[in-house]
Each structure stands twice: as C-alpha cells, then as structure tokens.
Specification:
The complex is a heterotrimer of chains A (228), B (647) and C (253). Chain A is mainly alpha-helical and 228 residues long. Helices cover 76% and strands 4% of the residues of chain A. In chain A, helix 2 packs across helix 9 (161-188). Chain C is of the alpha+beta class and 253 residues long. Chain C is built from eight helices and seven strands.
Chain lengths: 228, 647, 253
C-alpha cells in the first residue's frame, strides 16, 4: 500500500480526497434537504417524521451514516491541513494583493467558510443528532408505529431567535462554500471538459443558492409560525 | 559538392563509447544551437558542461523567433528540393556564403523537422493531421514550418527539454546565471573557459577537451535592436582576442518590419513577424510630409513602393531589399508617424479579401461591407492575433483599424567567428555554432533560416565533426584547472573586473552603449560610406577611451551586479564596433545587408563586386586596435553568382 | 522625437541585498515618465537616476522584453505582471497607470522561489520539474518522417496552447497557495495530448508531480488566480487533465 499512501500524501491525492468527500457531502445534502423539505407539506410534521423514521431505521442508511461521519472528518482534516500548509508555502507574504481581481473571495476563503460551517455543524448536531440518537426524544404514533417526533423538536429549537440567526448564517457560509466547492470538486477529480464544465458550473451555482435557501427557509418559516 | 557531406560522414574519425565518457565538452550558450548541441553530445556519451547567463537555459533569445523554420520537405508538392533551398539561401545571401556549408544545411533541414516533431514540438497542422507550411520572404515555394507566431519558442523548448533530460541523466551539468569571460588555451588548443557565477560574483575555471561557443549574435552593438537585453558578443570577442578570426563582422541584417522608436527612453525594438508581409501591404503617401492620418489618404495617393519597384516578389522581397526601400522613402521625406521614420503596413485590403472569402464560405453572397470587414477581422485575428495584440500594447493603436507603422531595425548578424567546414574556429578545439559563427547566410539571411541553422549545427553537424577532433584527444587526460594557463586567464579576467570597478567615473554603462549605438546606426547601419566609416572609427576609439576613464559601476563585484555585467559586454561591443566599421570600410561593394553608397546602380539597387570581393573577410586580432585581414576566397561550383533580381 | 512624458509616480519597491539579507520596501519618486514607455523602461529611468546619485540600481530579471522569454517577474500593485491581462511585465506599458499613482513592486513570493536580490528570484525549481520528466525520450537522429505521425488538429491546437507556457512563474506568484500546478500541468498536457508523448505519459506525470511537491510548491485549491494572471492564458483545463493523468497513473499504472 506504499503507493496508496504516497498518493494520499501527494498534492493531487489530497485534492482528490477533498473532491471525493466533497461530492459525497453534496449527495448527503441532497438527501438531507429532501427529507427535511417534508415539513413544507405542513401536515403537523407527519410526512417529515415518517421520512425521518425511515432514514433512522434503514440499515443501509445507518451504514451510510458512518461513512458520512468519516467523510466529514476526512474533509475537515484535509481542509485544515491544506489551510495550515498555505502559510508555509509563502513565508513572506505580499505587501499588496489584489486577489479579488483574479479570483473570488470565497474561493480564497474555503478554510474560513469551512470552519464556520464546522462550528455551525457542532451546534446542529447537538440540537438534533444527539437527542435523536443518544439522549432520547419524545415519540408520536402514526398507524400503530411509534416514531421519534423530530418535528416538535424542530419547532422547539427554532422558537429562539438567536438559533434561527445562527442557522441562517450557517447556511450562508454553506452556500458560499458550495459555490466554489461544487465545481472545484469536479475540477479536482479531473472532470473538466469544454462542453460540460459550463453546465457543471451553472448547476453548482444553482445548487449552492437553492439548497441553502431551502435550509434557511426551515428555521425562518418555523420561527415565523408560517409552518405550524 | 552534392556528395561532400555524405562523403565526410562516411570517412570521419569516430570516438568509441568508452572513450566518449572520458572526454569533456563545454558548451557556452543554450539557445537553439547550444541546447541542441549539449543535448546531442550528452546523448552520445560525452561529459558536457553547459553555461548560460540567464536564470534558465529556456530563456535564450532563440525563443523570440516568431515566423518559422525552413526545410526542404516539399510536402506542398510545389517544386521544392534540397537543391532549391540551397540555391535560394546562397542567392539570398548575395553569394557571400560558403557553398558547401549551405548545401549541408539544406540537406539536414529535413531531419530537423523530423527530430523536432518526435520531441513533441507542436508545429502547425492541417485538418488531415499533416504538417502545415507557409511562404516567407525571398522564396517562391512554401517550405516554412511554424507554430503560430511562436516557432522559436516551441523549437527552443524542444531542445531545452532534450537538454534537461540529459541533465537529469547526469550527462550534462548545467550552469545557469554564469557568464563566460575567457577561453583558456594550452599549447594552442582550446582547453576550457573562465566563467563568472553571476550570483556569487566568483570566477570559476572549467576544463574541456573542446569548447563550443553557441552564444548568438551581436546586434546589440547598435544598442537598439530586436535582440534580448542580455544578448552580447563577449564570449565570441574573448575568443577573437585569443586568436579566433572574426568573419565578415560588418554583415548585419536590418529587419524591415519592426515597431518604430517611440522615444529616447526606448530600450529595445520589437519585431513584427515577417509573416505579416504575406498579407499586409506596405505603403507611404505619394505626397512628401503628408500630414493626414492614414485613413484619410485616398487609394490613388498611396505609393505601394515595394509592389511598384519589385512586381515579381512585391511585399515579399528579401529583408535587406525591403529595409533599404523603406529607408529610401523616409529619407526622401515620405515617412509617416510622429517621427516621420516609419512606413505603413496595411491590413485593410487583406481584411476585405479574407472577409469576402469567409462570407462566401458561409453562403453570404451579398454581404454588406460591414459584415465582410467583421468576418475579415476574425480571419486576420486567427492568423496574426497575437502579433496585433502586441502591437497595440506597445503603441496604443489598434492595427485592425489603422495601418501599423513599421521601420527597419537591427535584427541579426550574419557575421561571426570564422569557422571551417567542421565549425571549428582558427583555435583548434574551439567551435562556434549558430548565429555566433559566420558561415551560412552570406551577406543576408533569408527569413526562417536562422532556426534552421542553429538546429542544424547543434543536432546534425557538430555531433559528427567534433568526433574528428576528439578522436585524437582520447589520450589527453583532464587537465587540472590549477594549470598555469587557467590561473593566468582567471587573473586576467579578475584584473578586467577590478579595472572596471575602480574607474568610478561619472557616466552609466548605458550612456556609453547608447552613444556607441548611435554611431553604429548612423554610420555603419543600413547605408555606409567611406567618409562616415572613417569618422565612426575615430569616434569609437574616442568613446573607448572615455569609457575606460569615466564609466561608473555602482555596488561591488562580489554578488549579483547587472551594471558590472553590462559594462563588460559594452567594453567588448566598443571593440567590435570598431572592427565592424573596419570591415565595412574594407568591403567597397554592396552585397546583401551591407550597402556601400559608393557601389550602387543608377536606380539605387545594391551593386555587388565579385571581381574584388568574392571572399570572406576573416580578421585576426593584433592588439591595440590593429586587425589583420585574411581572405578566404569564395568559389561557386553550382550556384553561379548572378545579379540578385527580385523585380 | 518624443523626449519624455510628464507622469509623476511614487514607487514602493522591495530591496534586498541577497538571499540571506532581510529586505524592506523603499520609496522612490519618479517623474518625466511617458505613457509610451514600457514598465521596465520606467525602471531603467529610475535606475539611471540611482546610478547618477551613486546608489545601487534595483536588480530585476528581464531579457527579451517582448513577452516571450519568461524572465521578467514583478508583482505589481498586488498582481503578477501587473494589471493588463495576458501580458508580461516587459510588455506592460505606462498607459496602464495614471499620473500621481503609487505603484507597489514586489518579487514573486514562494518558498520554492527564494529571493536572490531585490526583485530577482531563483526559479530553478521549474527546471528540475522539467528534468523529472517534462520531455519525450528521443535521441537525436532517432526520428521518423515528421508526416508519418498524424495528429488530429484539435489535439495539436490544445497541445500548442499548453506548450505556450513561458515558465515565468506568475502562476505560482498569483496563487494564494503558491502552487505550481498550472506550470506543471501545461507541460504534462502538452506532451500527453500528442501521440509522441504517449509511451511515457504515466511515469512522466508521476515523476513531475512528485518533483513539484518536493520543491515545496503549495496545494491547488482551484481558485483560478493562476489562469487569470498567466501572460499566455494557459487554461485551468490543463490542471484537470493533469489530475486525471495522475490518478490514472497511480491506479491503473
């Protein structure tokens, strides 16, 4: 496996790891967003709670969850290593830089945006993942089946203004992170083609606006009691 | 003569592989000639040391050649052949080149293209996947291979990569940011060099069984030229001072299509590729001192003077002819632009012509003028876009809208160290390749022939001819560099540096260089006469004295000091400039780039004098501004001299 | 003849005696600058003045002054080669600036490009990357007829576009991570796109990337700053191609 560790340590190997885990996390976002969007049915959480229950009880999804945590961890560790590496590569910095002319601020701030997302993620896990998997939650009955009432937990959490604000800021960070990360992942994996790259770029742009928008709508609409 | 090279190769002495490993070769300069020679000799098994003054061998000025490289491939089926390339080159050189060398050049030209393509040089291709050709000045066939406007770059990078491969394999040791300051001779043979590490300032002694100078041309003697800022004559000049003869120093090529001088702070001139003359039309107003902008001068008031004077070749006459014609018009008061020292190179008709073709291609048979112009600009942009952009960056004018202004500028030096058929100078073991030697272009070089010669010398000539010398050197062991000859040469180089540093005068190096350049351009430039040349010699001698008593070099010699580097180079240019004038004065005929006003036809064309001057002037350095002339008679067995007629 | 212009400028230039010395900025006022001068000619004017004042002129790398040798290398007002797109420092002209401007000029900054003096840096790392595999192993005299190798024109054009790299190092200078991916990938792409380069493509990309990492160049985070600042406008597509080539060389090789 010597060749494999050499690959992982190489500059391109690291990019590939970032790209692969990034795409994996993007897929997770699609699923997560899809399940959570069930609250917009506005049926007092029945569709959402059932969907969440399916996700929580399905064997394959649970296995994937382990993979998800591994992926997040890998993405974070690599990301932080890359960030830490930067200053070593240019020990004497420039007095004047005009970076904004040649690249977007968010592409240059992936480490910062990632860290903000990580902080948000810790709070987010504490709000939902910890009670549902470890400390326990209230339950609700649908057609003779007891499921966790995540919906009421959401309503409880999103009743506080500061939480809503943090969530909105968190998904804004996510949006900018994706705006660079989505197309960047494809580039890192070598998938750049004059015909398809513009498509990937537009898709990434749309995705990084739409998905955070949907996520932001959840705490907002709940706080405003438009969903109730 | 057609068999000479084949016979030579068949009978030349060889060095066996085991002995090659014991033989050391020094290559100075890493342009097309130097890089290709160093790589080829490394591949053959010689121990090579290569030197360049730039930070990387890839920077050599061969990189700036734009237009192309000639080869007698006859891929276009238009009647080309080795003989025709040979003949065109001898004629283009105005019968002042050595026939056998030129024939060899034409013979190996085809192998160069094969070699470069095998290396991955991305030469232009047709849709069928085959190589593309274009035409160039002075020829009537399409034999020029090219890579957009970056042919020199691509060929040099090919040679550079081959060189770096040998560096990686340990066959070549590379010394960049090193400048050669002297040749070391022992018992009459060249045995090494003294080089200065430009970063540390230290002098180094390097031994070699043979030394190759591939150090390019000396156009910078004119201060303003299309050469790189660092291009210099020092290596060749030091060899000359050590006994190598200098051949035809006055043969300078003035390129007709350069961007004119814009002000006194101009540091160099930029060439606009000769390929632009394929499509552009050159003209001046018919009225003297016409104040109108180009676009307001109606067609019938324009003088397309090349087409008028030379209907057969038109705008594609050789460089020397085109340059003189431009000078003639400007001197007569028809020049354009603020300085009045420029002529127009106009793309309007080419844009219209290409626009019409393009419109037809797209089925727009009744396209209006505006559409045609737009389409035409697109085609021109595809062919010459990078050159047009460069023009706009430098001048601030858009050449798609207004004609470009061009004027001749010093571009290439046909003269150089005298070499024999084997490329050896008059010092045994000292070779000279590429532009630095005098051999192949006579009194005028045809476009796209410089790249051909550099690579021919490096890839296909020196690997054979050097063996003929080194075969007799296999018993010579490496000479330790504490040999007295090395110590003396180093001490002399150090003394020159100390002398320069200790002048502590009041004028910068550039001040002297600019003054030398002006003397050379005015009196030994596009037109020369006896009186002017005599004046120039006196003025240059005066300038030499001023330089050595009043130049100021700040800083010290123990580190990177660009002013010191320049000073050493200008000191040599000051001596070379004098020799160029001496040579120009001696050659009382007009041939190629050398135009003596005393020797012209009634209608102002150059008049060659084969009776008295069909020889190579090889000058021997005697010290104290004295040079002895040795004549190598030129005989033409195949390409019989005739009047060069492009009308 | 136009004598000189009337622009007045303030220059803040990095001065450093040698690679081990500590450098600092110095400020110079220059006047009489014409819009038709090139940026380096403006430096010539300043240097002439410094010499006349008995001071040491500013050392900077330059040679061809026509945008092709790749030697010039100034970081001007926060940008590699200054404000014009697709332009080297030597081709930048003073028309790009206004009277009264302050211009900050720094050397390329990268741990792999140590400063030699003032604005001169050591870019020999690039040569070593090429030595690691940036070539086709064909000895002189081994070649077949040039037209016996057919090359699809689009591929030939792409190879040519990649081969246009002049090795100036602006990509490294501009990259927030000081990565050399654009330089390395340009050579990998140039040779991988041609049939002549095919036999060695796996070892080539592997060795060149390894050397690039050894030299101390940074990681690539796809910001695209290199492409934006490249005087020859080398495309990011080349980096993607190199990633592809590298992955396939590791996993399929």
């Amino acid at each position: 496996m010597n060749w494999f560790t050499a690959f992982l340590k190489s500059s391109i190997g690291r990019k590939v790891v970032m790209g692969l885990t990034g795409i994996f996390l993007i897929v997770f976002l699609v699923v997560h967003c899809g399940v959570n969007a069930c609250i917009f049915v506005n049926d007092n959480g029945e569709t959402f709670n059932k969907a969440a229950h399916f996700m929580g009880s399905n064997f394959f999804i649970r296995v994937a969850e382990i993979g998800l945590f591994a992926g997040i961890l890998l993405h974070i560790v690599q990301g932080l290593l890359l960030w830490a590496d930067k200053s070593k590569r240019r020990p004497v910095g420039y007095n004047k830089t005009a970076g904004s002319v040649t690249s977007t601020w968010y592409s240059r701030s992936m480490g910062l945006l990632g860290t903000l997302i990580l902080l948000f993620l810790i709070l987010h896990l504490k709000h939902f993942w910890v009670p549902s998997r470890i400390t326990g939650l209230g339950e609700v009955m649908y057609e003779q089946e007891k499921v966790l009432n995540l919906y009421s937990e959401m309503k409880r959490v999103f009743s506080e203004l500061w939480v809503v604000v943090v969530y909105v800021l968190g998904v804004i960070s996510l949006g900018y992170h994706l705006m660079h990360g989505f197309q960047s992942a494809f580039q890192s994996l070598g998938w750049n083609h004059p015909k398809y790259t513009p498509l990937i770029k537009s898709l990434g742009f749309g995705f990084s606006i739409l998905v955070p928008l949907i996520f932001a709508a959840m705490p907002l609409l709940m706080y405003l009691e438009i969903i109730n | 003569m057609n068999e000479k090279w084949t016979n030579y190769k068949g009978s030349v002495k060889l060095v066996n592989p085991a002995n090659k490993r014991k033989l050391e070769v020094i290559v100075v300069g890493t342009g097309l000639a130097g890089a290709s020679a160093a790589a080829s000799l490394g591949e053959m098994g010689y121990k090579v040391k290569a030197f360049c003054f730039q930070d990387s061998p890839r920077r050599a000025h061969s990189i700036a050649a734009q237009g192309g490289i000639n080869a007698a491939k006859n891929y276009q089926n238009d009647g080309d052949s080795v003989h025709r390339l040979f003949y065109d080159t001898v004629k283009g050189g105005d019968y002042r080149a050595r026939e056998a060398n030129v024939h060899r050049l034409a013979e190996v030209s085809t192998s160069i293209i094969d070699q470069c393509v095998a290396q991955g040089v991305p030469l232009a291709r047709e849709y069928g996947g085959l190589l593309s050709n274009r035409s160039f000045g002075g020829t009537q066939v399409q034999r020029t291979f090219y890579a957009a406007g970056q042919t020199g770059q691509q060929l040099l990078i090919g040679a550079y990569q081959a060189l770096e491969r040998q560096v990686a394999l340990g066959n070549v040791e590379m010394f960049s940011r090193h400048e050669m300051l002297d040749v070391v001779t022992i018992e009459g043979k060249s045995r090494g060099i003294i080089a200065r590490d430009l970063i540390s300032g230290k002098l180094e002694r390097h031994f070699g069984h043979a030394v190759l100078l591939c150090t390019g041309g000396y156009g910078n003697v004119f201060y303003l030229s299309t050469n790189a800022m660092g291009s210099n004559v020092t290596a060749a000049w030091k060899a000359h001072r050590k006994g190598a003869y200098f051949g035809n120093p006055c043969f300078t090529q003035i390129h007709p299509t350069c961007i004119p001088v814009s002000g006194d702070h101009q540091s160099k001139l930029t060439l606009m590729s000769e390929s632009l003359r394929n499509d552009g039309r050159i003209w001046v107003p018919k009225m003297q001192n016409d104040p109108r902008p180009a676009n307001q001068i109606p067609e019938e008031e324009r003088d397309y003077y090349l087409e008028r004077r030379y209907p057969a070749f038109g705008n594609l006459v050789p460089r020397d002819v085109a340059s003189r014609a431009a000078k003639e018009r400007c001197d007569a008061g028809y020049g354009v632009g603020a300085s009045k020292m420029a002529v127009y190179l106009d793309y309007a008709s080419a844009i219209e012509r290409y626009g019409k073709t393009e419109a037809n291609k797209r089925g727009l048979h009744n396209a209006d003028k505006e559409t045609i112009i737009t389409l035409g600009k697109g085609v021109v942009a595809e062919k010459y876009g990078n050159l047009f952009e460069m023009y706009e960056k430098i001048t601030g004018e858009n050449p798609y809208e207004v004609p470009m202004r061009i004027y001749p500028a010093v571009h290439y030096t046909m003269g150089g160290l005298w070499v024999d058929y084997e490329l050896m100078t008059t010092i045994p073991g000292l070779y000279c390749l590429g532009e630095a030697n005098f051999s192949d272009h006579g009194a005028n070089r045809l476009g796209a022939s410089a790249l051909m010669q550099g690579l021919a010398d490096g890839y296909f000539v020196i690997p054979y001819t050097i063996g003929n010398y080194l075969a007799d050197e296999i018993r010579t062991n490496s000479i330790p560099t504490d040999h007295p000859a090395f110590m003396e040469a180093e001490a002399a180089a150090q003394a020159t540096i100390d002398r320069l540093m200790n002048i502590k005068g009041s004028k910068s190096v550039d001040y002297f260089h600019k003054r030398l350049g002006k003397i050379m351009w005015d009196k030994c430039g596009m037109a020369r006469n006896e009186e002017g040349l005599k004046q120039a010699i006196a003025e240059i001698r005066q300038l030499q004295q001023e330089f050595w008593s009043d130049v100021r070099i700040p800083g010290d010699a123990n580190g990177l000091n660009p002013e010191l580097e320049k000073a050493g180079r200008v000191a040599d240019f000051l001596e070379l400039g004098e020799l160029m004038c001496v040579d120009a004065l001696n050659r009382n005929e007009s041939c190629g780039g050398h135009f003596r006003e005393e020797s012209q036809t009634p209608d102002g064309e150059a008049e060659r004098n084969d009776e008295d001057y069909a020889y190579v002037a090889a000058w021997e350095y005697k010290g104290n501004n004295q040079y002895d002339l040795h004549k190598e008679p030129l005989t033409f067995e195949v390409a019989k001299p005739s009047k060069r007629n492009y009308a | 003849m136009i004598m000189s212009g009337d622009m007045k400028l303030t220059l803040k230039v990095w001065r450093q005696k040698n690679s081990s010395a500590k450098g600092a900025f110095e400020t110079y006022q220059v006047d009489g600058i014409s819009k038709d001068m090139s940026f380096l000619e403006m430096f010539d004017v300043l240097n002439e003045r410094l010499i006349s004042e008995g001071k040491e002129p500013i050392a900077f790398d330059h040679d061809c002054r026509e945008g092709i040798c790749g030697m010039c290398s100034m970081y001007i007002n926060g940008r590699a080669h200054g404000p014009w797109k697709g332009t080297t420092t030597c081709q930048l002209h003073m028309r790009a600036f206004n009277d009264g401007d302050t211009i900050v000029v720094e050397p390329w900054r990268s741990v792999a490009f140590p400063v030699v003096k003032d604005l001169v840096v050591n870019r020999s790392a690039f040569d070593r990357i090429i030595q690691a595999g940036g070539y086709i192993s064909v000895n002189t005299g081994n070649a077949v007829d040039a037209n016996s190798i057919l090359i699809d024109k689009p591929d030939a054009d792409k190879a040519f576009a990649a081969a246009a790299c002049i090795g100036c190092g602006a990509c490294v200078a501009a990259c927030p991570n000081a990565s050399a991916m654009l330089f390395t990938s340009a050579k990998v792409s140039h040779l991988a796109l041609l049939p002549q380069g095919d036999p060695e493509r796996k070892t080539r990309v592997n060795n060149m990337v390894r050397q690039m990492d050894i030299e101390g160049f940074g990681m690539c985070s796809n910001t695209g700053a290199c492409e934006a600042e490249c005087p020859k406008e080398i495309s990011l597509e080349n980096i993607a191609r190199m990633n592809r080539e590298y992955v396939s060389s590791v996993f399929a090789g």
